[in-house]
Amino acid sequence: MKNINSEKGSLTLFVTIAMLFFMMFLLALYVSTTNQQKTQLAITARIKEIYEKDINNVEEIYNNFIGTDENIPIYTAEQLKKVGSGESIYIEEVKKYYTFNLDSNYILKNNIELNKGKYSILNDGTINFNSDAEQWIPIGTASKQFTGKFDANGYKIEGIYINSNSSNQGLFGYNQGTIQNVVLSNSYIKVNSTLDGIFVYNLGTVKNCINTIFKE
């Protein structure tokens, strides 16, 4: 009987260690830049600390590093660009990973400026973007529409640049979810028809939004 219990204990230890290293492997997949590598080292150290304290505490590891909040916080322009991408993104400000799906809920935590340093407001009130300005890709397409919730929380989004022959252009492309409290300014959209800058096609809810972009 003693040998059987010992074998069960060894098996439990092996499974726990295997789960730990599998989780560390998944986290490592998200790492692609030097800053992320530094973050990954810090995460690995913290996982090791939790693991050594309690070998079976896989739940604490999960809760500490995988975001399970109702709303995904958006602090930066790079994070905003990932909305609806389906990617798992590490949010440095809260030190957790979130999956940026089209049906996820998002909330802005800062004013967001895209194309920082790549545009200027002219004396006549118009806006001029540099040749290296990055084109904005609308959130949601006809086949993969946005069905989540995007709350800009009263913060401002500026610096969106779109110069396209398509008419399906805006902050959002196709919306079946909820877009609210968006303040869009200091941006430029040139398309082959006049469209609202916040969304193109809306089958959901859009409320309390302010749009003061330049359109052609």
Could you please describe the fold and organization of this structure?
With 216 residues, this protein is an alpha/beta fold. Helices cover 28% and strands 26% of the residues. The protein is elongated. Helix 1 (2-29) runs antiparallel to helix 2 (34-53) and helix 2 (34-53) runs antiparallel to helix 3 (58-65). It has two domains: 1-65; 69-216, no CATH class. Strand 2 (88-91) and strand 3 form a beta hairpin. It has a five-stranded parallel β-sheet. The protein contains four helices and 16 strands.
Q: What is the helix/strand order?
A: HHHEHEEEEEEEEEEEEEEE
The figure for the number of domains is: 2
- Number of DSSP strands? 16
Q: Assess the beta-strand content as a share of residues.
A: 25-35%
Structural class by helix and strand composition: alpha/beta
Q: State the helix count.
A: 4
Straight-line distance between termini: 81 Å
Describe this protein with a few key phrases.
alpha/beta, 5-stranded parallel beta sheet, elongated
Structure summary:
With 216 residues, the protein is of the alpha/beta class.
How do the helices and strands line up, and which of them pair or pack?
Layout (H helix, E strand, L loop, with lengths): L1 H28 L4 H20 L4 H8 L6 E3 L2 H5 L6 E4 L4 E4 L5 E4 L3 E2 L5 E3 L5 E3 L19 E3 L4 E3 L2 E3 L10 E2 L2 E3 L2 E8 L10 E2 L2 E3 L2 E6 L1
Parallel strand pairs: 1-4, 4-8, 5-9, 8-12, 9-13, 10-13, 11-14, 12-15, 13-16
Antiparallel strand pairs: 2-3, 6-7
Helix pairs in contact: 1-2, 2-3
